[in-house]
Amino acid sequence: MVRNPSNPTVEEIKEWAYSDEVEPHQEWELFLLWKGEFIDYLKFASDINCPKESFFLDLLYYWIWRIAVERANENEVESFKEVFEKAESINTPYVRLWLQRSQELLAGTREVDESSWRENRRPYENLS
Q1: Is residue 99 packed enough to be buried (19+ CB in 10 Å), middle (13-18) or exposed (0-12)?
Q2: pTM above 0.85, yes or no
Q3: Are 23 and 62 in contact (CB under 8 A)?
Q4: Which residue has the higher pLDDT, 36 or 114?
């Protein structure tokens, strides 16, 4: 499915996103960050019919953490404003929550450590 996991095509990423296949490489998450197709990742994270929706939501969280705290590469940093603008029009609750938390983190109004950043990304699942 993915011929070269370290440099997948956009078509291969989409095909993988809508498949039942496991990650094609242990560093898949990093390869996707380096690829930098964040608008597409946002689409997958907001599509409840996408089998890898949760994976892509986690990827978006990891991406923003890298921008705010770790050393992210230039490609990652340059595109977050465009992705935020696109996310403003998305009504998926988990994506809206990601956007709000991400904006707060990057603005310096949200102080979190890495473990709390990784927690409670899907709080609406626990509601009865």
Answers
A1: buried
A2: yes
A3: no
A4: 36
